[in-house]
């Protein structure tokens, strides 16, 4: 459970850490759109290169970022295999056949792209939480959504909910570890290869975890009431968000990367080498 990296902040004082959280949220949204626009191996590699550069600039250990993939790698593998065996290509002969299952070269390409896309979709949000505190993300989201206040949208409450959820992730992970260790001392078999026994062993963990979560939520509500919390009206921030030239340059750089990916996909000028790269 300690390998879950979402919600865990890793301080290093890098340029990525010091960037304005509003720009980091905008860049992440732009990045997620770019991932869905990637359609060739070259465009996937192009985007992956700049993601690696961002990870290096953040000074976060790459292994810590990759730990966020541990709990979805099984889902990625299952999805990839299903895509490969159920892919239908009427224009070519299958490479292999097993009854009703056929494997085409196009299916292999499509499954690799799908797995690559899923991994990229997880890595950037993981890096965002590792380089930004929940308070920074809360303030950045509230600032970006502030125009919706004129429509009476509860912007502050939404940002506060997100901030509390991110803060509680490490706490719940620690609580889960304690409960699992206590159940192991009582003879629970979490390492059993039988899936039914695993599910049965998890029930004594989930029920105390839910009870503990509700108790923490009740304690948090009492603490907020005792401090006279009454919403966003009249509240101020200790640290005001300030935009720097580096934030603008970073956003412009990612916009340029987006344009390059669009060019790689659509080849507006009809260049032949782009067509050869579009596998």
How would you describe what is shown here?
- There is one protein chain.
- This protein is mainly α and 279 residues long.
- It is 67% helix and 2% strand.
- It has helices at 15-18, 21-37, 41-58, 62-66, 73-86, 105-131, 134-144, 155-185, 195-226, 245-266, 272-277; strands at residues 96-98, 101-103.
- It has a two-stranded antiparallel sheet.
- Strand 1 and strand 2 form a beta hairpin.
- Helix 2 packs antiparallel against helix 6 (105-131), helix 7 (134-144) runs antiparallel to helix 8 (155-185) and helix 8 crosses helix 9.
- The chain is flat.
- The two termini are 38 Å apart.
- The model has no long low-confidence stretch (mean pLDDT 81).
Across the major sheet, the strand order is: 1-2
- The strand count comes to 2
Cα-based radius of gyration, to the nearest Å = 23 Å
Estimate the strand proportion. under 5%
Order of helices and strands: HHHHHEEHHHHHH
Gross morphology: flat
Spatial gap, N to C terminus:
38 Å
Unreliable sequence segments: none
What value does the average pLDDT take?
81
How would you sum up the major sheet? 2 strands, antiparallel
Percentage of helical residues?
Answer: 55-70%
Question: What distinguishing features does this structure have?
Answer:
single chain; 279 residues; mainly alpha; two-stranded antiparallel ribbon; flat
In short:
This protein has 279 residues and is mainly α.
Give the helices and strands, then pairings.
Layout: H1 15-18, H2 21-37, H3 41-58, H4 62-66, H5 73-86, E1 96-98, E2 101-103, H6 105-131, H7 134-144, H8 155-185, H9 195-226, H10 245-266, H11 272-277
Antiparallel strand pairs: 1-2
Helix pairs in contact: 2-6, 2-7, 2-10, 3-6, 3-10, 5-6, 7-8, 8-9
């Amino acid at each position: 459970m300690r390998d879950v990296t979402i919600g865990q902040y890793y301080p290093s004082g890098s340029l990525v850490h010091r960037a304005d959280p509003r720009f980091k949220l905008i860049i992440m949204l732009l990045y997620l759109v770019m991932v869905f626009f990637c359609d060739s191996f070259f465009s996937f590699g192009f985007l992956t290169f700049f993601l690696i550069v961002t990870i290096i600039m953040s000074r976060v250990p790459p292994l810590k970022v990759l730990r966020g993939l541990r709990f979805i790698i099984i889902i990625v593998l299952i999805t990839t295999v299903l895509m490969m065996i159920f892919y239908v290509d009427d224009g070519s002969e299958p490479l292999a056949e097993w009854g009703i299952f056929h494997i085409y070269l196009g299916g292999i390409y499509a499954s690799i792209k799908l797995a690559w896309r899923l991994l990229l979709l997880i890595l950037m949000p993981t890096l965002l939480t590792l380089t930004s505190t929940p308070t920074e993300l809360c303030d950045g989201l509230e600032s970006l959504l502030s125009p919706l206040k004129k429509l009476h949208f509860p912007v502050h409450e939404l940002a506060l909910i997100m901030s509390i959820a991110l803060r509680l992730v490490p706490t719940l992970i620690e609580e889960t570890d304690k409960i699992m260790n206590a159940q192991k001392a009582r003879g629970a078999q979490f390492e059993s290869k039988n899936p039914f026994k695993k599910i049965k062993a998890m029930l004594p963990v989930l029920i105390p975890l839910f009870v503990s979560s509700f108790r923490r939520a009740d304690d948090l509500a009492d603490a907020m009431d005792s401090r006279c919390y009454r919403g966003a009206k009249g509240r101020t921030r200790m640290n005001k968000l300030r935009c720097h030239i580096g934030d603008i340059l970073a956003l412009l750089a990612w916009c340029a990367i987006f344009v390059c990916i669009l060019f790689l996909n659509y080849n507006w000028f009809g260049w032949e080498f782009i067509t050869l790269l579009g596998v």
